[in-house]
Amino acid sequence: MADTELAPTRPGIYSRGTETVDAILKAAHDVLIEEGAEAFTVRRIATECGLRVGNVSYHFPKKEMLVQVLLDDIMENYNTKLDVNVRQPDLSDEERLRLVIVICLDDICSKRTTHLFTELWALANHNDFIAERVRGFYAKVHDVIGEYVQRINPALSPDEVHTLSLFISASMEGTTPFLGYKKPWNDKMAAITAISASWFIDLVKSTKPGDIADMTRRSS
Amino acid sequence: MADTELAPTRPGIYSRGTETVDAILKAAHDVLIEEGAEAFTVRRIATECGLRVGNVSYHFPKKEMLVQVLLDDIMENYNTKLDVNVRQPDLSDEERLRLVIVICLDDICSKRTTHLFTELWALANHNDFIAERVRGFYAKVHDVIGEYVQRINPALSPDEVHTLSLFISASMEGTTPFLGYKKPWNDKMAAITAISASWFIDLVKSTKPGDIADMTRRSS
DNA sequence: GCAAAAATAGGACGATCATCAAGATTTGGT
DNA sequence: ACCAAATCTTGATGATCGTCCTATTTTTGC
């Protein structure tokens, strides 16, 4: 198991308890997205789900526990959603990569993702637990993208596949603060999505083994 | 003047006062970057610059004033740095665009920028003043990029130039949470920078008028 | 049904927050 | 040198934070 360091376990033994824990987690999730990390207090969360402060403190004796359980919940949710949406049959590898790109950019436009990930990126600066979970999530995203990159262009080395996946993923995530939910250039997201789907696939197809190393060497 | 809404003025009349205000702003800047928005308290800032809480409160009666003056300071600083670095003589438009890309990605790797902008993106979710200043800053970045895009490919319409600039800028900013200062894939920044400089310029040169509209129409 | 365990209510704790008020000190113009 | 204004110290304000403690109520195992 290797749970030596981090093993936030979900409290709640009786059914009433687990229901309450669910309510607390949902409330915490909503407060974080609707009002931001600043408003993310035990009291605000308790109010949000109609509980008393002491009761929330009973289920999560330390606030950090709540943060960790919540984050695990959220990340697991994103991972399964990604899996479910991508594993469509009857699609070519190219169509699958296009689908991943469209799904990611579409998701970025949701209020949930726009707010959540900007908060997480900031929190990750000074919270190792959050940093590690965010890293793990994106590692999985890169793997999913990399799987199709490799199939579309089998000549590429694993390292080249990873670099390309990283580049595509970072480029997409970068739209969050500009073209995300209610962001200044949100109206341009359709065009950016179309460009991304088309150009990233072109990039994957046209990159030849050694290209990245050549470019890196030349520009250093 | 139309200063009805936002006109944060820098306090401090006597030279001693201005020095103190400078010290407060520097301390506030450092606290935000080194310890994040969570630690951004008047008390912490006062300690950082060896002042008493009441004195900081004297110069900035409301914390929001401090935030606004600080942010204006920071954004002005970034804008002038961008101008100074880009306005190099004896360079072709293509070399200038390459320079902007390299400068931006290099800057993203600094602790200051990596931490600062992730914090600002999060704060912008629920603080209109910050959201507006961040928007204004990136609008300027897009203009700088757009100027060279237009010159490299004069056939493109202003809207196409803007979309391309937005795409390039967003792609670069997206590297912040992944390849920025002490981020998980920071060691890949050299390769990503090389890819970006080369690929974005290729895109600008190869895009034909109508291409973006065609792709957008086809994918809707 | 009954005892034990779990869940909840309600209040209190000390710590820290932004802000303020009043007095002491320093500064700049004259 | 003097005075008013600017600056700084000091202490206190009420609000809010996370956490804890003790009853009280609800649920579960038997």
Please supply descriptive tags for the structure shown above.
Arc Repressor Mutant, subunit A; homodimer; DNA-binding; disordered N terminus; 220 residues; 11 helices
Description:
The structure is a homodimer of 220-residue chains. With 220 residues, chain A is an all-alpha fold. Chain A folds into two domains: 1-63, Arc Repressor Mutant, subunit A, CATH 1.10.10.60; 86-219, no CATH class. Helices cover 73% and strands 0% of the residues of chain A. Chain A contains eleven helices and no strands. The longest helix of chain A has 25 residues, at 128-152. Chain A starts with 14 loop residues before the first helix and ends with a helix. At the A-B interface, α6, α7, α8, α9 and α10 of A face α6, α7, α8, α9 and α10 of B. The first copy, chain A, binds a DNA duplex (30 and 30 nucleotides) through residues 12-17, 20, 41-43, 51-55, 57-59, 61-63.
